[in-house]
């Protein structure tokens, strides 16, 4: 009875294997695309993407600098996927993360550039903005049974136009460059404090956003698995009726969950925009971060720590496109590969099923032979 | 030589940690009704899944008409003419009866459905076997009994001649059970061979020709039903003698614990009240039963009482405390325990482990949490203690995901949880639904113990045996109203039946 389940049969290990398989398959398909576009240089091209910033391995400072940038850029997608998986555990599909991320951009840039706030309050403003946006979805869901996907999509568009209007003002937008002002130039106190910049080749974008992201992931893991709140959320996610029977308050939990999810998305926006690495440009589509976060959440096996790895991997590939030789390839090939991997993430569950099926058949055969 | 249509010889099937079938042999004669009897977890469902191609056995052979066959998946089984009515129906709720019957075997010409032929065939079958269905009704609108007839028609439509019924009566009312028994006899007379999985002895005695008994994965024996008794069958099944009557002393009721005054609950289906002006009380130390045919407002009433549904008017008092508009959490923590009717919908979070389910209403109490953090050790200990005390069996103990446990053990887990929680009132809705005699005996004893230790018990049951055996007072509910109160000692089943069917009602409204 108490014999340990063998290593490869543990659910956690299986999820990891499946995710790795997905990623590998995506890279493989990407290679085929390179082959089709320009067979002669496909191997070299793939090598460049995978080798990425390691091409600077002769100069450790430069290498670390680009490594740092990759980490910095993977922060928002990781946090967005944390936001998504948190809501997902409670049975909610928070597609509104994109909009919650967008209002996070509004709050962090407006408070830092236009109002000249200290970074700490800018971050709080972004968190609050995301939470309020999440509250709208949650309120509609809890009280009027409006599907959170529908509410989320509508709120996404509202947030986009709000963002264009608010950040389009001359106090924030540098009209001549048609992007928002540098925070450093307008209000240096609005930038996040640095973090291990020395180690990463004096990369000025390395900030406390990195440890904060890791802390958020650990806290989510803790909340979901160790606390009564997490217990309630997961119970509601698995079986809402049983949660009601047990005396839990599903309405309150729905609102709380979406607010927390939104707050994490808002935080995600502040953690990238307050480093100064990105500027907002007037856009006609909702930032894709929230949507890519969905795929990353699944690629990471809906595990907060898995999301960190998956987020970094996806960002690594995206950056890899810059290292492609533009004589032979369009750098957007990397985007295409990322898109394929993201697409494949949808198959994670399928692979998982296939995998456990194969495992079963093997086990049966083995026993029969014995 | 006997004319066996299906033979399963020396079947062995193992799962991690358990041998579900250990060298089991089952031989089905042509045209017989063969009962397969065993407790929960005895391996009946596993054996049938092997026959149906859902599991591959490690050892043993299956023969059809004397020839060895390989059944690797349900399609193979269907090709051999084996059909199964599952315990939980496999129907698409928003499809019509006809669509459900042809689903998977749609008649077509060049990819276009030809439903008219199908309709003719279905109607002919329905006529022949007296299986009344409305082919154009949606599944969600018809009764459970009719859904089952649809399942049977599905098998007949596919020209199956070996029919497996997996605990078909668990979800039926007494009338529907009678109906089903007739249908099964009819089918056998027409030459169909029936395997009937059950643990209800009355049904076996009534309908089966032979009965094979399994216990804890082992084959115990096959008997001719005509030459046996209920007592013999049950002792073969459980491995010891079982009492059918519940041992209990005279109730010594004390003060009122539950008082219900003029409670009404609106119906979700129509404009009338599902529960209308219900008033009664339950005293400490007595078992009061609400009897009635399924669908006469019992579910809605219990919903209103426990807070799962809103009541539109009336008052509810628990131990003198007005709990009419109190939250479910308040009721849970102020002396109400509730064994719900639907263990999958309300009683359990199936994807949670056993231990997590054991603390479902208590996770926030200081015993199990500290500053919002769950005490895993306390949870584990508590779960192990309850499992031990109530004989809840599971593959991996407290860590077992409840979905993988057998129905009986799931129910026992709920019973254990609700009985162990501090309570003055125990509401038990269909507490023994789908359980075997051993477990039923056990749960009945526990309910009587609850009564004797001073709890008030409100039992809602569709099983008349249970109602008559267990209760101290019986209230009969018909169309949402209490139409009479009877004393189980002085009444008869016939009289109870008159109340239940609405043919008789007490003139005084205060039942």
The CATH architecture of the largest domain in chain B comes to 3-Layer(aba) Sandwich
At CATH level 2, the architecture of chain A is Orthogonal Bundle
Strand content of chain B: 25-35%
Number of helices, counting only DSSP H or I runs of 4 residues or more of chain B: 17
Distance between the termini of chain A: 20 Å
- Fill in the CATH topology of the largest domain in chain B: Rossmann fold
Care to describe what's here?
The complex is a heterodimer of chains A (370) and B (511). With 370 residues, chain A is mainly α. Chain A has one domain (10-365): ABC transporter involved in vitamin B12 uptake, BtuC, CATH 1.10.3470. Chain A is 70% helix and 1% strand. Chain A has helices spanning 11-37, 42-51, 60-89, 97-114, 119-144, 148-167, 183-186, 209-226, 228-238, 240-245, 250-273, 289-299, 304-320, 332-345, 348-369, and strands spanning 173-174, 179-180. In chain A, helix 8 (209-226) packs antiparallel against helix 13 (304-320). The longest helix of chain A has 30 residues, at 60-89. Chain B is α/β, with parallel strands linked by helices and 511 residues long. Chain B folds into three domains: 4-238, P-loop containing nucleotide triphosphate hydrolases (Rossmann fold), CATH 3.40.50; 244-335 and 423-511, 3-Layer(aba) Sandwich (Rossmann fold), CATH 3.40.50; 343-421, no CATH class. A six-stranded mixed beta sheet of chain B has the order 6-9-10-3-11-12, with helices on both faces. A six-stranded mixed beta sheet of chain B has the order 18-21-22-15-23-24, sandwiched between helices. A four-stranded antiparallel beta sheet of chain B has the order 2-1-4-5, covered by helices on one side. In chain B, helix 15 links the parallel strand 21 (425-429) and strand 22 (456-460). At the A-B interface, helix 9, helix 10 and helix 15 of A face helix 10, helix 11 and strand 20 of B.
